[in-house]
Amino acid sequence: MGDKLKSVKIFRKKKENKEFVAGITAYNYPIARIADECGIDWILVGDSVGTCEMGYQTTIPVTMEDMLTFTKAVIKGVKNAPVIVDMPFLSFHTTSEEAVSNAGKFLQLGASGIKVEGVKKTDNIKAIIDSGIPVMGHIGLNPQYYFQTGYKVIGKNKEEVKKTIDAAKILEKIGVFAIILESVTTELSLKILKQSSIPIYGIGAGKNLDGQILVVNDILGLSFDFKPKFSKQYVNLEDTIREALIQYKKEVKEGKFPDKEHIYD
User: Fold this and answer.
1) Which of 19, 110, 140, 235 is deepest in the core (most CB within 10 A)?
2) Active-site residue 182, yes or no?
3) Do 192 and 61 sit in the same domain of this protein?
C-alpha cells in the first residue's frame, strides 16, 4: 500500500468541481495496478468477483473470507485511487457489532471505505458510519436480493420510482458519502441526482450523473456470453488470451518452445 492517504473526501471534491468520475471494479493485483497507473478515479472490490472470477451464477455465495483475500490483492496494486469494498451477502445483516467488525476488517487492510446494498438494516449501516467507517450506498437493482427481485431495470412504475427515491433520501440522511444506482431508468436517476447533495454514480443508470462505474471484466471482454446492455466492451481479451494459449500449446507440441532465446546455457 502506498503512503498517500486515499480519503473518500475526493468524491465530494470532484462533484463540487463538476468533474465526471470514472470507477471500475478490480479483483487482483495486476488489474488494480494498471487501473491506478492509468488514473482511474476509484476502484471497487466488488462482490461481483463471485460471477466474474469464481464461477458463481450470483454474488450470494461470496463470503467475507473471499472478499478479504481479493481486497488484499487489490490494495497491493494501488497507490493513489481510493479502494471501496463490497460488504458481501449477510455480512452486515445480523448485529450492529458484527456489521461494524466486518466492515472494519476492510479498512484495516487499507481500504478507504465499504459499500452496502439496499436500505435494509439501516441501523447497522448507521452503526458502521458512526464507528468512523465511510459507507457508499447501492440502490436500484441489488444483486444480493436476486432471489427476491431477479435482475431487472428499476423505475418502470410509480411504486419503484418512489421506493428508490425514498431509499436515496434515507441513505443520505444516515450519512453515506455517495450512492451507486444500478440498472435504473435515466428519468429516475436524474430525479435522484437533483434531490441529492452527495455524489451519485451509475452502472446502467444513464448519463449526466456524477460518474460511472463498470465491471472490469465487461470492459476487457472477459465476460464470455454475459453482455449487459449498459456495459461497453473496449477490447476483446477473451480472443487474445485464447489465441496466445493456442499458439503456446502448438509450439510446445511441435518442439519449438523453449527455443535458444528462452533457455539457460
Assistant:
1) 140
2) yes
3) yes
